[in-house]
Protein backbone atom coordinates (compact mmCIF):
# COMPACT_ATOMS: atom_id res chain seq x y z
CA UNK A 1 0.00 0.00 0.00
CA UNK A 2 2.87 2.40 0.58
CA UNK A 3 3.76 2.22 -3.11
CA UNK A 4 0.18 3.21 -3.91
CA UNK A 5 0.17 6.13 -1.44
CA UNK A 6 3.71 7.48 -1.57
CA UNK A 7 6.34 7.86 -4.26
CA UNK A 8 9.76 6.37 -3.65
CA UNK A 9 12.92 7.76 -5.21
CA UNK A 10 12.90 4.98 -7.80
CA UNK A 11 10.57 2.26 -9.01
CA UNK A 12 10.94 -1.10 -10.78
CA UNK A 13 10.09 -1.51 -14.44
CA UNK A 14 7.08 -3.83 -14.79
CA UNK A 15 8.66 -5.70 -17.71
CA UNK A 16 12.29 -6.08 -16.64
CA UNK A 17 12.32 -5.38 -12.90
CA UNK A 18 15.16 -2.92 -13.47
CA UNK A 19 15.31 0.44 -11.71
CA UNK A 20 13.45 3.30 -13.39
CA UNK A 21 12.85 6.91 -12.33
CA UNK A 22 10.09 7.77 -9.90
CA UNK A 23 10.27 10.76 -7.55
CA UNK A 24 13.89 11.06 -8.65
CA UNK A 25 13.82 11.62 -12.40
CA UNK A 26 17.61 11.21 -12.67
CA UNK A 27 20.68 10.70 -10.50
CA UNK A 28 24.48 10.96 -10.52
CA UNK A 29 27.17 9.30 -8.47
CA UNK A 30 30.78 10.23 -7.76
CA UNK A 31 33.63 8.11 -9.10
CA UNK A 32 34.26 6.61 -5.65
CA UNK A 33 30.56 5.72 -5.24
CA UNK A 34 30.31 7.65 -1.97
CA UNK A 35 28.21 10.63 -3.10
CA UNK A 36 24.83 10.20 -4.76
CA UNK A 37 22.90 13.14 -6.16
CA UNK A 38 19.19 12.72 -6.92
CA UNK A 39 17.30 15.21 -9.07
CA UNK A 40 13.69 15.39 -7.87
CA UNK A 41 10.99 15.90 -10.48
CA UNK A 42 9.36 19.29 -10.32
CA UNK A 43 5.87 18.13 -11.27
CA UNK A 44 5.25 15.99 -8.18
CA UNK A 45 2.87 17.33 -5.54
CA UNK A 46 1.48 16.20 -2.22
CA UNK A 47 -2.23 15.47 -2.27
CA UNK A 48 -2.89 18.60 -0.18
CA UNK A 49 -1.42 20.70 -3.00
CA UNK A 50 2.02 21.32 -1.52
CA UNK A 51 5.00 20.59 -3.81
CA UNK A 52 7.21 17.58 -3.16
CA UNK A 53 10.72 18.89 -2.65
CA UNK A 54 14.21 17.74 -1.84
CA UNK A 55 13.60 18.84 1.75
CA UNK A 56 10.99 16.08 2.11
CA UNK A 57 13.51 13.51 0.94
CA UNK A 58 16.26 14.80 3.21
CA UNK A 59 13.91 14.97 6.20
CA UNK A 60 12.68 11.38 5.66
CA UNK A 61 16.15 9.85 5.54
CA UNK A 62 17.67 12.11 8.21
CA UNK A 63 14.84 11.26 10.60
CA UNK A 64 15.51 7.57 10.01
CA UNK A 65 19.19 8.19 10.77
CA UNK A 66 18.50 9.98 14.05
CA UNK A 67 15.33 8.42 15.50
CA UNK A 68 15.38 4.65 16.22
CA UNK A 69 11.59 4.42 16.03
CA UNK A 70 11.64 5.95 12.56
CA UNK A 71 14.22 3.41 11.43
CA UNK A 72 12.59 0.37 12.97
CA UNK A 73 11.56 -1.15 9.64
CA UNK A 74 14.01 0.06 7.00
CA UNK A 75 16.94 1.27 9.03
CA UNK A 76 19.28 -1.02 7.09
CA UNK A 77 19.01 1.35 4.13
CA UNK A 78 20.48 4.31 6.06
CA UNK A 79 22.99 2.63 8.37
CA UNK A 80 25.75 3.51 5.91
CA UNK A 81 24.57 7.11 5.33
CA UNK A 82 26.93 9.84 6.56
CA UNK A 83 24.65 12.74 5.60
CA UNK A 84 21.59 13.64 3.54
CA UNK A 85 21.30 17.23 2.35
CA UNK A 86 18.87 19.17 0.18
CA UNK A 87 21.31 21.28 -1.82
CA UNK A 88 18.45 23.13 -3.50
CA UNK A 89 14.67 22.75 -3.83
CA UNK A 90 14.90 19.77 -6.17
CA UNK A 91 18.34 18.25 -5.51
CA UNK A 92 19.29 15.80 -2.76
CA UNK A 93 22.83 14.74 -1.96
CA UNK A 94 23.50 11.58 0.02
CA UNK A 95 27.03 10.95 1.27
CA UNK A 96 27.95 7.40 2.29
CA UNK A 97 30.57 6.03 4.64
CA UNK A 98 31.15 3.12 2.25
CA UNK A 99 29.86 2.33 -1.26
CA UNK A 100 26.33 0.90 -1.11
CA UNK A 101 24.80 -1.11 -3.94
CA UNK A 102 21.18 -0.42 -2.91
CA UNK A 103 21.23 3.29 -3.75
CA UNK A 104 18.91 2.65 -6.70
CA UNK A 105 16.74 0.29 -4.67
CA UNK A 106 15.94 2.37 -1.59
CA UNK A 107 12.51 0.90 -0.90
CA UNK A 108 11.50 3.73 1.41
CA UNK A 109 8.36 5.87 0.97
CA UNK A 110 9.22 9.58 1.00
CA UNK A 111 6.98 11.38 3.49
CA UNK A 112 5.72 14.98 3.65
CA UNK A 113 7.86 16.89 6.14
CA UNK A 114 5.15 19.48 6.76
CA UNK A 115 2.86 16.69 8.07
CA UNK A 116 5.19 14.21 9.74
CA UNK A 117 7.49 16.72 11.43
CA UNK A 118 4.57 17.45 13.76
CA UNK A 119 4.62 13.87 15.08
CA UNK A 120 6.15 13.56 18.54
CA UNK A 121 6.43 9.76 18.75
CA UNK A 122 6.96 7.81 15.52
CA UNK A 123 6.70 4.51 17.34
CA UNK A 124 3.16 5.28 18.51
CA UNK A 125 1.82 7.22 15.52
CA UNK A 126 -0.30 5.06 13.18
CA UNK A 127 -1.39 7.76 10.71
CA UNK A 128 -4.81 6.13 10.38
CA UNK A 129 -7.33 8.64 11.73
CA UNK A 130 -7.01 11.99 9.93
CA UNK A 131 -8.36 11.35 6.41
CA UNK A 132 -7.54 11.85 3.63
CA UNK A 133 -3.95 10.85 4.32
CA UNK A 134 -1.50 13.22 2.63
CA UNK A 135 0.63 11.33 0.14
CA UNK A 136 2.18 11.68 -3.30
CA UNK A 137 1.36 8.38 -5.02
CA UNK A 138 -1.32 7.36 -7.52
CA UNK A 139 -3.90 6.68 -4.79
CA UNK A 140 -5.06 8.58 -1.69
CA UNK A 141 -6.09 6.72 1.48
CA UNK A 142 -9.49 8.17 2.39
CA UNK A 143 -10.96 5.71 4.88
CA UNK A 144 -9.97 2.78 7.07
CA UNK A 145 -12.39 0.59 9.02
CA UNK A 146 -10.40 -2.03 10.98
CA UNK A 147 -11.09 -5.56 9.70
CA UNK A 148 -13.80 -4.17 7.41
CA UNK A 149 -12.32 -2.14 4.58
CA UNK A 150 -9.64 0.21 3.31
CA UNK A 151 -10.68 2.85 0.78
CA UNK A 152 -8.38 4.67 -1.60
CA UNK A 153 -9.30 7.31 -4.19
CA UNK A 154 -7.45 7.97 -7.44
CA UNK A 155 -5.04 10.89 -7.23
CA UNK A 156 -6.16 13.10 -10.15
CA UNK A 157 -2.89 15.09 -10.06
CA UNK A 158 -0.44 12.19 -10.04
CA UNK A 159 2.49 13.09 -12.29
CA UNK A 160 2.44 9.78 -14.19
CA UNK A 161 -1.28 10.12 -14.87
CA UNK A 162 -4.38 9.36 -12.83
CA UNK A 163 -5.53 5.75 -12.39
CA UNK A 164 -8.53 4.86 -14.56
CA UNK A 165 -10.54 3.48 -11.64
CA UNK A 166 -11.60 6.35 -9.39
CA UNK A 167 -11.79 4.22 -6.28
CA UNK A 168 -10.00 1.16 -4.93
CA UNK A 169 -11.55 -0.64 -1.94
CA UNK A 170 -9.89 -3.46 -0.06
CA UNK A 171 -12.67 -5.39 1.64
CA UNK A 172 -11.90 -7.77 4.49
CA UNK A 173 -13.61 -11.15 4.14
CA UNK A 174 -12.81 -13.51 6.98
CA UNK A 175 -13.31 -16.83 5.18
CA UNK A 176 -11.33 -17.71 2.01
CA UNK A 177 -14.28 -19.63 0.54
CA UNK A 178 -16.56 -16.66 1.18
CA UNK A 179 -14.01 -14.53 -0.62
CA UNK A 180 -14.34 -16.72 -3.72
CA UNK A 181 -18.13 -16.65 -3.53
CA UNK A 182 -17.99 -12.86 -3.33
CA UNK A 183 -16.00 -12.88 -6.56
CA UNK A 184 -18.52 -15.18 -8.22
CA UNK A 185 -21.43 -12.98 -7.18
CA UNK A 186 -19.70 -9.78 -8.23
CA UNK A 187 -19.46 -8.44 -4.68
CA UNK A 188 -15.71 -8.09 -5.20
CA UNK A 189 -13.75 -7.75 -8.43
CA UNK A 190 -10.38 -9.28 -7.54
CA UNK A 191 -9.09 -11.90 -5.14
CA UNK A 192 -5.60 -13.18 -4.44
CA UNK A 193 -3.96 -15.86 -2.33
CA UNK A 194 -6.21 -18.55 -3.76
CA UNK A 195 -5.73 -22.17 -2.80
CA UNK A 196 -5.00 -24.57 -5.67
CA UNK A 197 -8.52 -26.02 -5.32
CA UNK A 198 -10.09 -22.55 -5.57
CA UNK A 199 -7.92 -21.71 -8.55
CA UNK A 200 -8.98 -24.87 -10.38
CA UNK A 201 -12.64 -24.29 -9.56
CA UNK A 202 -12.60 -20.77 -11.00
CA UNK A 203 -10.87 -21.63 -14.27
CA UNK A 204 -14.06 -22.20 -16.25
CA UNK A 205 -16.27 -19.60 -14.55
CA UNK A 206 -17.95 -17.10 -16.86
CA UNK A 207 -16.60 -13.52 -16.63
CA UNK A 208 -13.75 -14.60 -14.35
CA UNK A 209 -10.09 -14.70 -15.39
CA UNK A 210 -7.55 -16.62 -13.30
CA UNK A 211 -3.84 -15.97 -13.11
CA UNK A 212 -1.02 -18.23 -11.91
CA UNK A 213 2.26 -16.33 -11.69
CA UNK A 214 5.71 -17.62 -10.82
CA UNK A 215 6.17 -17.08 -7.12
CA UNK A 216 8.14 -14.15 -5.71
CA UNK A 217 7.60 -15.52 -2.23
CA UNK A 218 9.29 -18.45 -0.54
CA UNK A 219 7.72 -20.86 1.93
CA UNK A 220 9.86 -22.09 4.79
CA UNK A 221 10.17 -23.19 8.37
CA UNK A 222 12.39 -21.77 11.07
CA UNK A 223 13.97 -24.07 13.65
CA UNK A 224 14.60 -22.47 17.02
CA UNK A 225 18.40 -22.50 17.49
CA UNK A 226 18.02 -21.04 20.97
CA UNK A 227 16.42 -17.57 21.12
CA UNK A 228 18.88 -15.07 22.52
CA UNK A 229 19.65 -11.38 22.81
CA UNK A 230 22.56 -9.77 21.01
CA UNK A 231 24.70 -10.16 24.14
CA UNK A 232 24.01 -13.90 24.14
CA UNK A 233 21.44 -13.94 26.94
CA UNK A 234 19.06 -16.86 26.22
CA UNK A 235 15.31 -16.68 26.62
CA UNK A 236 12.24 -18.68 25.67
CA UNK A 237 11.73 -22.42 25.94
CA UNK A 238 12.91 -23.81 22.61
CA UNK A 239 13.81 -27.50 22.54
CA UNK A 240 17.57 -27.74 23.23
CA UNK A 241 18.05 -30.56 20.70
CA UNK A 242 17.46 -28.09 17.87
CA UNK A 243 20.68 -26.36 18.87
CA UNK A 244 22.45 -29.51 17.64
CA UNK A 245 23.36 -29.17 13.91
CA UNK A 246 23.07 -32.95 13.54
CA UNK A 247 19.44 -32.95 14.66
CA UNK A 248 18.61 -30.07 12.34
CA UNK A 249 20.26 -31.75 9.37
CA UNK A 250 18.50 -35.04 10.10
CA UNK A 251 15.16 -33.25 10.32
CA UNK A 252 15.73 -31.54 6.96
CA UNK A 253 16.50 -34.96 5.43
CA UNK A 254 12.91 -35.95 6.30
CA UNK A 255 11.37 -33.16 4.16
CA UNK A 256 10.26 -34.11 0.65
CA UNK A 257 10.01 -30.70 -1.00
CA UNK A 258 8.79 -32.13 -4.32
CA UNK A 259 5.92 -33.96 -2.63
CA UNK A 260 4.88 -30.81 -0.74
CA UNK A 261 4.40 -28.85 -3.93
CA UNK A 262 2.85 -31.73 -5.80
CA UNK A 263 0.32 -32.58 -3.08
CA UNK A 264 -0.27 -29.52 -0.88
CA UNK A 265 0.10 -27.01 -3.71
CA UNK A 266 -1.43 -29.09 -6.50
CA UNK A 267 1.68 -28.81 -8.63
CA UNK A 268 1.34 -25.01 -8.69
CA UNK A 269 4.75 -24.19 -7.33
CA UNK A 270 8.42 -25.03 -7.41
CA UNK A 271 10.30 -27.13 -4.87
CA UNK A 272 13.62 -25.50 -4.09
CA UNK A 273 15.94 -24.83 -1.19
CA UNK A 274 17.31 -21.49 -2.39
CA UNK A 275 16.48 -18.40 -0.36
CA UNK A 276 15.99 -16.11 -3.39
CA UNK A 277 13.19 -17.38 -5.68
CA UNK A 278 14.18 -18.53 -9.17
CA UNK A 279 12.05 -15.69 -10.54
CA UNK A 280 15.07 -13.51 -9.76
CA UNK A 281 17.57 -15.52 -11.79
CA UNK A 282 20.51 -13.14 -11.25
CA UNK A 283 20.61 -13.85 -7.51
CA UNK A 284 18.92 -17.24 -7.29
CA UNK A 285 20.98 -20.11 -5.87
CA UNK A 286 20.17 -23.75 -5.40
CA UNK A 287 22.41 -26.52 -4.06
CA UNK A 288 24.38 -28.74 -6.37
CA UNK A 289 23.88 -32.49 -6.20
CA UNK A 290 26.81 -32.77 -3.78
CA UNK A 291 25.50 -29.94 -1.58
CA UNK A 292 21.87 -30.95 -1.46
CA UNK A 293 20.36 -32.00 1.87
CA UNK A 294 17.62 -33.93 0.14
CA UNK A 295 14.81 -36.23 1.18
CA UNK A 296 16.58 -39.28 2.63
CA UNK A 297 15.04 -41.02 5.64
CA UNK A 298 17.94 -43.50 5.79
CA UNK A 299 20.43 -40.64 6.03
CA UNK A 300 18.37 -39.05 8.80
CA UNK A 301 18.33 -42.28 10.81
CA UNK A 302 22.04 -42.80 10.27
CA UNK A 303 22.92 -39.29 11.46
CA UNK A 304 20.83 -39.64 14.61
CA UNK A 305 22.15 -43.15 15.36
CA UNK A 306 25.74 -41.94 15.11
CA UNK A 307 24.99 -38.94 17.33
CA UNK A 308 23.56 -41.13 20.07
CA UNK A 309 19.87 -40.30 19.75
CA UNK A 310 18.50 -43.77 20.46
CA UNK A 311 14.83 -44.76 19.88
CA UNK A 312 12.67 -44.87 22.99
CA UNK A 313 9.93 -47.37 23.74
CA UNK A 314 7.42 -45.46 21.64
CA UNK A 315 9.82 -45.17 18.71
CA UNK A 316 10.63 -41.51 19.39
CA UNK A 317 14.34 -40.92 19.78
CA UNK A 318 15.73 -39.66 23.05
CA UNK A 319 18.68 -37.32 23.46
CA UNK A 320 21.63 -37.72 25.83
CA UNK A 321 19.73 -35.54 28.31
CA UNK A 322 16.84 -38.01 28.30
CA UNK A 323 14.48 -35.64 26.50
CA UNK A 324 12.57 -37.07 23.50
CA UNK A 325 12.95 -35.52 20.06
CA UNK A 326 9.38 -34.24 20.19
CA UNK A 327 8.99 -30.76 18.72
CA UNK A 328 6.10 -28.31 18.66
CA UNK A 329 5.31 -27.39 15.07
CA UNK A 330 3.27 -24.18 15.02
CA UNK A 331 1.59 -23.56 11.68
CA UNK A 332 -0.38 -20.62 10.33
CA UNK A 333 -3.87 -22.01 10.74
CA UNK A 334 -5.31 -19.75 8.04
CA UNK A 335 -3.06 -21.30 5.40
CA UNK A 336 -4.34 -24.76 4.38
CA UNK A 337 -1.24 -25.48 2.33
CA UNK A 338 0.97 -24.87 5.36
CA UNK A 339 -1.20 -27.13 7.49
CA UNK A 340 -1.17 -29.94 4.94
CA UNK A 341 2.58 -29.62 4.38
CA UNK A 342 3.17 -29.74 8.14
CA UNK A 343 1.11 -32.90 8.49
CA UNK A 344 3.08 -34.50 5.65
CA UNK A 345 6.35 -33.53 7.32
CA UNK A 346 5.17 -35.01 10.60
CA UNK A 347 4.59 -38.38 8.91
CA UNK A 348 8.04 -38.39 7.32
CA UNK A 349 9.80 -37.28 10.50
CA UNK A 350 8.20 -40.12 12.44
CA UNK A 351 10.06 -42.57 10.18
CA UNK A 352 13.30 -41.14 11.57
CA UNK A 353 12.13 -41.26 15.18
CA UNK A 354 11.27 -37.56 15.37
CA UNK A 355 7.87 -36.40 16.56
CA UNK A 356 6.43 -33.19 15.12
CA UNK A 357 3.33 -32.10 17.03
CA UNK A 358 1.45 -29.98 14.49
CA UNK A 359 -0.33 -27.10 16.22
CA UNK A 360 -2.23 -24.69 13.92
CA UNK A 361 -2.36 -21.23 15.49
CA UNK A 362 -4.01 -17.95 14.54
CA UNK A 363 -0.67 -16.14 14.59
CA UNK A 364 2.97 -17.00 15.23
CA UNK A 365 4.23 -13.51 16.06
CA UNK A 366 3.92 -13.73 19.83
CA UNK A 367 5.59 -17.16 19.87
CA UNK A 368 8.54 -15.76 17.95
CA UNK A 369 8.67 -12.65 20.14
CA UNK A 370 8.95 -14.74 23.29
CA UNK A 371 11.05 -17.58 21.87
CA UNK A 372 8.37 -20.05 22.95
CA UNK A 373 8.44 -22.31 19.91
CA UNK A 374 10.41 -25.14 18.33
CA UNK A 375 9.41 -24.93 14.66
CA UNK A 376 7.36 -22.26 12.89
CA UNK A 377 6.11 -21.84 9.33
CA UNK A 378 7.20 -18.63 7.67
CA UNK A 379 7.42 -16.90 4.31
CA UNK A 380 8.65 -13.68 2.77
CA UNK A 381 8.08 -11.79 -0.43
CA UNK A 382 11.39 -10.99 -2.13
CA UNK A 383 12.06 -7.77 -4.02
CA UNK A 384 14.07 -7.47 -7.25
CA UNK A 385 16.98 -6.31 -5.11
CA UNK A 386 17.52 -8.98 -2.43
CA UNK A 387 19.29 -6.81 0.14
CA UNK A 388 16.35 -6.33 2.48
CA UNK A 389 15.36 -9.98 2.80
CA UNK A 390 19.02 -10.90 3.28
CA UNK A 391 19.28 -8.38 6.11
CA UNK A 392 16.73 -10.15 8.30
CA UNK A 393 19.30 -12.86 9.03
CA UNK A 394 22.05 -10.62 10.41
CA UNK A 395 23.30 -10.90 13.98
CA UNK A 396 22.23 -7.27 14.40
CA UNK A 397 18.65 -8.46 13.85
CA UNK A 398 18.61 -10.07 17.29
CA UNK A 399 16.88 -8.05 20.02
CA UNK A 400 19.00 -6.03 22.40
CA UNK A 401 16.57 -6.45 25.28
CA UNK A 402 13.67 -8.68 26.23
CA UNK A 403 10.53 -7.39 24.59
CA UNK A 404 12.52 -4.97 22.45
CA UNK A 405 12.31 -4.58 18.67
CA UNK A 406 14.09 -7.03 16.43
CA UNK A 407 14.29 -8.07 12.80
CA UNK A 408 15.50 -11.66 12.97
CA UNK A 409 13.05 -14.28 11.75
CA UNK A 410 14.88 -17.20 13.34
CA UNK A 411 17.31 -15.81 15.94
CA UNK A 412 19.97 -16.59 13.37
CA UNK A 413 23.53 -15.33 13.82
CA UNK A 414 26.52 -16.40 11.75
CA UNK A 415 29.62 -14.20 11.51
CA UNK A 416 30.50 -15.53 8.05
CA UNK A 417 27.04 -14.59 6.82
CA UNK A 418 27.41 -11.09 8.31
CA UNK A 419 30.79 -10.67 6.61
CA UNK A 420 29.36 -11.71 3.25
CA UNK A 421 26.40 -9.36 3.72
CA UNK A 422 28.72 -6.39 4.22
CA UNK A 423 30.75 -7.49 1.21
CA UNK A 424 27.75 -7.70 -1.14
CA UNK A 425 26.42 -4.37 0.10
CA UNK A 426 29.52 -2.55 -1.14
CA UNK A 427 30.01 -4.59 -4.34
CA UNK A 428 28.79 -2.49 -7.27
CA UNK A 429 29.52 -5.06 -9.99
CA UNK A 430 26.31 -7.04 -10.52
CA UNK A 431 27.94 -10.35 -11.41
CA UNK A 432 30.42 -10.18 -8.55
CA UNK A 433 27.66 -9.23 -6.11
CA UNK A 434 25.50 -12.10 -7.34
CA UNK A 435 28.24 -14.60 -6.50
CA UNK A 436 28.45 -13.23 -2.95
CA UNK A 437 24.67 -13.37 -2.54
CA UNK A 438 24.68 -16.98 -3.72
CA UNK A 439 27.38 -17.82 -1.18
CA UNK A 440 25.21 -16.26 1.55
CA UNK A 441 22.38 -18.55 0.53
CA UNK A 442 24.70 -21.55 0.69
CA UNK A 443 25.62 -20.61 4.28
CA UNK A 444 21.93 -20.30 5.22
CA UNK A 445 21.16 -23.62 3.56
CA UNK A 446 23.91 -25.51 5.37
CA UNK A 447 23.00 -24.14 8.80
CA UNK A 448 19.48 -25.61 8.60
CA UNK A 449 17.89 -23.00 10.80
CA UNK A 450 15.93 -21.20 8.10
CA UNK A 451 14.73 -24.03 5.84
CA UNK A 452 13.13 -23.04 2.52
CA UNK A 453 10.80 -25.55 0.81
CA UNK A 454 10.32 -23.58 -2.40
CA UNK A 455 8.05 -21.08 -4.08
CA UNK A 456 4.29 -21.41 -4.54
CA UNK A 457 2.69 -19.83 -7.59
CA UNK A 458 0.76 -16.62 -6.92
CA UNK A 459 -2.87 -17.59 -7.63
CA UNK A 460 -5.32 -14.77 -8.38
CA UNK A 461 -8.63 -14.17 -10.12
CA UNK A 462 -10.59 -11.14 -11.28
CA UNK A 463 -13.90 -10.18 -12.84
CA UNK A 464 -13.22 -9.76 -16.55
CA UNK A 465 -16.59 -8.03 -16.93
CA UNK A 466 -15.25 -5.25 -14.68
CA UNK A 467 -11.51 -5.15 -15.42
CA UNK A 468 -10.67 -5.14 -19.12
CA UNK A 469 -6.90 -5.24 -18.66
CA UNK A 470 -4.09 -4.40 -16.25
CA UNK A 471 -0.32 -4.74 -16.10
CA UNK A 472 1.30 -7.73 -14.38
CA UNK A 473 4.82 -7.68 -12.98
CA UNK A 474 6.83 -9.05 -14.64
CA UNK A 475 5.00 -8.32 -17.86
CA UNK A 476 4.04 -10.77 -19.26
CA UNK A 477 3.38 -13.67 -16.91
CA UNK A 478 3.64 -11.97 -13.55
CA UNK A 479 1.36 -11.26 -10.61
CA UNK A 480 -1.08 -8.43 -10.08
CA UNK A 481 -1.29 -8.23 -6.30
CA UNK A 482 1.84 -7.65 -4.22
CA UNK A 483 3.91 -6.07 -6.97
CA UNK A 484 7.16 -4.18 -6.56
CA UNK A 485 5.34 -1.07 -7.67
CA UNK A 486 1.77 -0.03 -8.38
CA UNK A 487 1.45 -1.03 -12.02
CA UNK A 488 -1.60 -3.29 -11.82
CA UNK A 489 -3.98 -0.90 -10.05
CA UNK A 490 -2.61 2.23 -11.65
CA UNK A 491 -2.96 0.73 -15.15
CA UNK A 492 -6.23 -1.19 -14.61
CA UNK A 493 -8.75 -0.37 -17.36
CA UNK A 494 -12.50 -0.61 -16.73
CA UNK A 495 -14.53 -2.61 -19.23
CA UNK A 496 -15.83 -0.26 -21.89
CA UNK A 497 -12.85 2.11 -21.70
CA UNK A 498 -10.29 -0.04 -23.49
CA UNK A 499 -9.76 2.56 -26.21
CA UNK A 500 -8.74 5.24 -23.72
CA UNK A 501 -4.93 5.27 -23.84
CA UNK A 502 -4.27 7.20 -20.63
CA UNK A 503 -1.62 5.68 -18.35
CA UNK A 504 -0.19 2.39 -19.47
CA UNK A 505 2.71 0.21 -18.48
CA UNK A 506 5.60 2.36 -17.37
CA UNK A 507 4.45 5.40 -19.35
CA UNK A 508 5.18 8.91 -18.15
CA UNK A 509 2.18 10.20 -20.08
CA UNK A 510 -1.58 10.04 -19.69
CA UNK A 511 -4.53 12.32 -19.14
CA UNK A 512 -5.84 12.99 -15.68
CA UNK A 513 -9.43 11.90 -16.24
CA UNK A 514 -10.87 9.18 -14.01
CA UNK A 515 -13.50 6.60 -14.85
CA UNK A 516 -16.14 7.24 -12.19
CA UNK A 517 -15.97 3.54 -11.40
CA UNK A 518 -14.76 1.60 -8.41
CA UNK A 519 -12.66 -1.52 -8.02
CA UNK A 520 -13.12 -3.82 -5.03
CA UNK A 521 -10.44 -6.27 -3.89
CA UNK A 522 -11.32 -9.07 -1.49
CA UNK A 523 -8.81 -9.71 1.28
CA UNK A 524 -8.85 -13.12 2.91
CA UNK A 525 -6.31 -12.22 5.59
CA UNK A 526 -6.88 -9.34 8.00
CA UNK A 527 -5.59 -6.08 6.57
CA UNK A 528 -4.12 -3.71 9.12
CA UNK A 529 -2.95 -0.27 8.06
CA UNK A 530 -0.03 0.77 10.21
CA UNK A 531 1.55 3.73 8.51
CA UNK A 532 4.36 4.53 10.88
CA UNK A 533 7.38 6.22 9.34
CA UNK A 534 8.70 4.08 6.46
CA UNK A 535 7.14 1.08 8.17
CA UNK A 536 6.98 -1.56 5.43
CA UNK A 537 6.73 -4.34 7.95
CA UNK A 538 6.48 -4.56 11.70
CA UNK A 539 9.59 -5.73 13.46
CA UNK A 540 7.39 -7.80 15.65
CA UNK A 541 6.20 -10.56 13.38
CA UNK A 542 2.85 -10.20 11.67
CA UNK A 543 -0.30 -12.16 12.29
CA UNK A 544 -0.07 -14.18 9.09
CA UNK A 545 2.61 -15.22 6.67
CA UNK A 546 1.44 -12.60 4.21
CA UNK A 547 2.14 -9.76 6.64
CA UNK A 548 5.85 -10.30 6.02
CA UNK A 549 7.09 -8.26 3.05
Automatic annotation (TrEMBL):
| InterPro entries from the UniProt entry | Peptide/Ni-bd (IPR030678), SBP_5 (IPR039424), SBP_5_dom (IPR000914)
Hey, which family's this protein in? Belongs to the bacterial solute-binding protein 5 family.
| Annotated protein name in UniProt | ABC transporter substrate-binding protein
What highest taxon heads this organism's lineage?
Answer: Bacteria
For this UniProt record, give its keywords in alphabetical order, as a comma-separated list: Membrane, Signal, Transmembrane, Transmembrane helix, Transport
Record GO terms (molecular function): peptide transmembrane transporter activity
Q: What are the Solute-binding protein family domain coordinates in residue numbering?
A: 19-391
Q: Give the chief site where it resides.
A: other
A Pfam family reported for this protein in Swiss-Prot or TrEMBL = SBP_bac_5
Any one GO CC term of the record: cell envelope
Q: Which residues cross the membrane?
A: 519-538
Q: Which CDD domains did the record assign?
A: PBP2_NikA_DppA_OppA_like
Amino acid sequence: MHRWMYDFLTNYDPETGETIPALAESWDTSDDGLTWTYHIREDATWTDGEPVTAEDVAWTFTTMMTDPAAAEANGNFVENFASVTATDEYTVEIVLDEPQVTMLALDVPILPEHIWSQVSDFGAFNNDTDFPIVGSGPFILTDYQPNVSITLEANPDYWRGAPKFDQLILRYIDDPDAQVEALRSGEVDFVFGLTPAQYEALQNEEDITVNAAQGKRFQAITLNPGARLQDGTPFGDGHPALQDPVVREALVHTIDRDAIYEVAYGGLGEANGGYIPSRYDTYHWEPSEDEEIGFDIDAANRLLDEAGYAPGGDGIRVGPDGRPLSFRFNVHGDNPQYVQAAEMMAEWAREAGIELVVEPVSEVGSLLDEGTYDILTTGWNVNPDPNYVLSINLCSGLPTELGGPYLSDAYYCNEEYDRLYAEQLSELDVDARAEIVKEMQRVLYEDNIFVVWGYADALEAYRSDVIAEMTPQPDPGGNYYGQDGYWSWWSAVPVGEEDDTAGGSGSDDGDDSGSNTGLIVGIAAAAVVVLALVLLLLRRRGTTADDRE
